[in-house]
Design a protein that fits this description.
The chain has 811 residues and is mainly alpha-helical. It contains 42 helices and seven strands. It comes from Amycolatopsis thermoflava.
Length: 811
């Protein structure tokens, strides 16, 4: 926008532009960029200074020292400024921190800027609030990935949630936090905030401090507090206009976590304590229990386990409600008050839970193990929960050596009188560790007990663990039922934080059931929720599931877009399990494109950075590994990998996995391959897994054609082609078409089915809701080009020509 404004000014169509943003957002850097691009322009500059904002015309004297009559009334002064600017054309005026200019200078410059449409003059202001009638552009905060990259560029290679949260996307804050872990005492950012605070009247400063010290400050409380302290309530408008507070309904909020932290830190200790005391005196202890606890904690002089416990209880409630920033704030407040291993253990349990979803899972696992040790003697249920979550964090990190150690440790805690929830946890450890170690005969019984307990317990997390057990057993329908139950239970309890986790198992069970459309919807909803409630690691889980969904259809472009979106987080957060899933997805695309050698190379790399192979994903990916190895003539390796998969499939009794097992055996080219193919096809049909059925039909048809049974091959290929077209799997459809032609059948143009594919339905509905192509691409994590391609196909299939017609179809 700034570049365009410069170009227009160069053509004699000047004006003004306000670059809005908080201190440290890059406003001044943008002025420097404008100066660098202003070839052929004269450049004049001025900066607002808090100490001079009450001295009339100081800003004008910086910018236009040739003005002599500064005593003129406002209209005449505005005209004089306009005349001086146009006389110096072509001219670029850069006015930094315009909200700290004296009002007379600011008003006169804005007056002139609004009247430069016929001159080669551009006036660019930076400010925290708009100027009436002057176009503005807001500098948005950096996103999570860009913020993490800034930290990495300044020596913090791993994302730190507290730093990311505090910086709130502010570039200067990120660089200063990277250097010292806090905003340094003499930082540019702190100095800018200090000057702006000093420019406020006392009452406005006090209101800004009230908002900074009470996250829940409402107007009624503010009115009572100002009456008691003698502050004029009209000072609220001054604090708002200066950009320190904002009104949200009947609440008065600080304008972001960064400003909140700096306002708190810049206030003298005596002022902070006085404000906490004031707010505590006007709050109702019954209606405002948490807020009273918060202010009492701030005033506490030392350890107070009871107060710490109250804060931790509230922090846990906020975390489960999907409000991690508030949970972390309460956790930080509770830490200094915690005394005794039990209270510290609860704090570490919450810290580890937060870290697992938004930080480094390896760190989370260690923190949760510490919590388990601290809680073992006094709160056994909490200790077992900490162990269970430590195991999940280890799996997420790809550290299965640690997972086995945790599982073995958990078994030592078993008692005859254990509660159903405790039995579920211990059986889950026994079953999953057995499955991961390939001891399927030992894994099946405890996993079935977990599934049974999950149906009885109403707790969302228990249902998630039971869903994982059912999925491992190959019972996709039961896994789906339990995961959906977890989502429902979480919704009724208000525990939003576990919903993205539950949706992982909703989506993967739908993939196992070949319900591609449902899996796509579930994973997209999981991604949306994870991003909305600040769980980047859960978001990566869903991105890699979405990539796998696309890869199973052979859609490289869509799969790659989703893998690219997840790649940075996978690398910087040590997300070993999603990393392995990403490798599997890429290999599936290679197979769809008939590049088995590339797929085999990827499977060899399916391990975490330390070289530990992911046993769960390795097992699930075995059919694709066998396909790649068999195609490359490496049947010995394929057979060796297949043997444990066959044991697993037999132990589960799953038609889905038994079908894949028989297909793999057929691909090895054994004498009874035809029987294995036919059994696989029967099992695919029994389990209603159409996409895998089509692939098996394609492989079997290839064998039949090579054995001069073209007629039988054609029958299978016709069915496979219809399925691939219905699932929008173009690479597989192309291979099937080529096989049909090789089998002697003409396939002119391959008529496409009238029904829309799952992804096309998603796109069509979003278009009908008014979304642009760019918005659709962002929401579905696909490329803009892919959206264009699908829209053309949607129009062709529905026989329409415009988005208006499409919207009418979906009303």
């Amino acid at each position: 926008m700034l570049r365009r404004a410069l170009g227009e000014a160069r053509d004699g169509r000047g004006g003004g532009l306000v670059v809005l943003g908080e201190p440290g957002s890059g406003r001044t850097a943008l002025l420097a960029a404008a100066r660098a691009e202003a070839a052929g322009f004269g450049v004049r500059e001025a900066s607002g200074v808090a100490a001079e904002r009450h001295l009339a015309h100081c800003g004008l004297l910086q910018l236009l020292p040739e003005l002599t009559d500064l005593s003129a009334e406002p209209l005449a002064l505005g005209r004089a400024v306009h005349a001086a600017l146009t006389a110096a054309a072509p001219l670029l005026c850069l006015v930094d921190d315009a909200d700290l200019l004296d009002p007379e200078s600011r008003d006169a410059l804005a007056f002139a800027a609004r009247r430069l449409s016929g001159a080669s003059v551009l006036v660019v202001f930076t400010a925290g609030t708009p100027l009436d009638g002057v176009p503005a552009v807001w500098l948005e905060p950096l996103g999570a990935e860009d913020s993490a990259q800034v930290l990495a560029d300044h020596g913090v290679p791993e994302p730190v949630p507290d730093l990311l949260d505090l910086a709130s996307g502010n570039p200067l804050a990120l660089t200063e936090l990277a250097a010292e872990g806090r905003i340094p005492p003499h930082s540019r950012l702190r100095r800018a905030v200090r000057e702006r605070l000093a420019a406020l009247d006392r009452g406005a400063r006090e209101i800004a401090l009230m908002a900074a010290l009470d996250d829940w400050l409402d107007v009624d409380t503010l009115v009572r507090a100002t009456e008691r302290s003698g502050v004029d309530l009209r000072a609220l408008e001054e604090a708002r206009a200066a950009g320190f507070v904002r009104l949200d309904g009947d609440h008065v909020l600080t304008a972001g976590p960064l400003l909140q932290a700096l306002i708190r830190e810049e206030a003298p200790l005596a002022d902070r304590r006085a404000t906490h005391t004031l707010l505590l005196s006007v709050l109702d202890p019954d209606r405002h229990r948490l807020r009273c606890t918060w202010h009492r904690a701030a005033l506490a002089g030392g350890a107070d386990p009871r107060l710490a416990g109250e804060l931790l209880e509230s922090a846990s409630e906020f975390w489960l409600a999907g409000r991690p920033r508030r949970a972390r704030a309460l956790l930080r407040q509770a830490r200094p008050l915690a005394r005794g291993t039990s209270v510290r253990g609860v704090a570490d349990l919450l810290q580890g839970s937060l870290e697992m979803r938004e930080g480094m899972p390896a760190v989370a696992s260690q923190t949760l193990l510490v919590a388990a040790n601290q809680l073992a003697g006094s709160q056994r249920d909490h200790a077992l929960t900490a162990l269970m979550l430590a195991g999940e964090a280890s799996c997420l990190a790809g550290d299965y050596v640690r997972y086995y150690a945790i599982a073995d440790r958990a078994q030592q805690l078993r008692r005859p009188d254990d509660s159903p929830r405790t039995r579920l946890i211990l059986d889950h450890f026994a079953g999953m560790s057995g499955a991961f170690r390939g001891r399927h005969d030992r894994a099946a019984a405890p996993l079935r007990r977990v599934v049974g307990l999950g149906g009885v317990l109403d707790e969302p997390v228990a249902k998630i663990w039971a869903s994982q057990a059912a999925y491992t057993l190959g019972d996709a329908a039961r896994a789906h039922e339990l995961a959906v139950g977890a989502v429902t239970s979480a919704g009724s309890r208000g525990t939003t934080a576990v919903v993205p986790w539950a949706l992982v198992y909703v989506a993967v069970s739908e993939l196992l059931l070949d319900r591609q459309s449902a899996a796509l919807s579930s994973a997209l909803e999981g991604l949306r929720m994870a991003r909305a409630i600040g769980q980047p690691n859960s978001a990566v889980d869903h991105l890699t599931i979405l990539a796998l969904e696309a890869s199973l259809r052979g859609d490289r472009e869509t799969a790659q877009a989703r893998l690219d979106a997840a790649g940075h987080e996978v690398a910087t957060r040590g997300l070993g399990r999603p990393g392995a899933l990403s490798t599997w997805a890429s290999a599936c695309v290679d197979l769809a494109e008939d590049r088995p050698e590339d797929a085999l190379d990827r499977f060899r790399l399916m391990a975490a950075g330390t070289g530990r192979v992911h046993p769960g994903i390795r097992a699930m990916a075995t059919p694709h590994f066998v396909e790649a190895a068999a195609r490359c003539g490496q049947t010995v390796k394929a057979a060796k990998a297949l043997a444990p998969y066959e044991d697993w499939a037999r132990s589960t009794g799953s038609d889905v996995r038994m079908a894949l097992s028989h297909r793999c055996r057929a691909l090895l080219g054994e004498p009874d391959a035809d029987e294995h193919f036919e059994t696989a096809i029967e099992l695919h049909r029994a389990s209603q897994t159409a996409l895998e059925l089509a692939k098996t039909e394609l492989f079997y048809a290839h064998r039949l054609r090579r054995n001069r049974k073209a007629r039988a091959a054609r029958e299978l290929l016709r069915d496979a082609l219809k399925i691939f077209q219905r699932y929008d799997a173009p690479r597989w459809a192309e291979r099937t078409t080529a096989e049909l032609r090789a089998a002697g059948e003409s396939v002119p143009g391959c008529a496409r089915p009238a029904d829309l594919t799952p992804q096309q339905l998603q796109i069509a509905r979003l278009v009908a809701e008014g979304a642009t192509n760019r918005e659709i691409a962002a929401q579905l994590v696909i490329s803009h080009r892919t959206v264009d391609h699908h829209l053309r196909n949607i129009f062709a299939r529905l026989g329409i020509r415009s988005r208006v017609e499409l919207a009418a179809r979906f009303r």
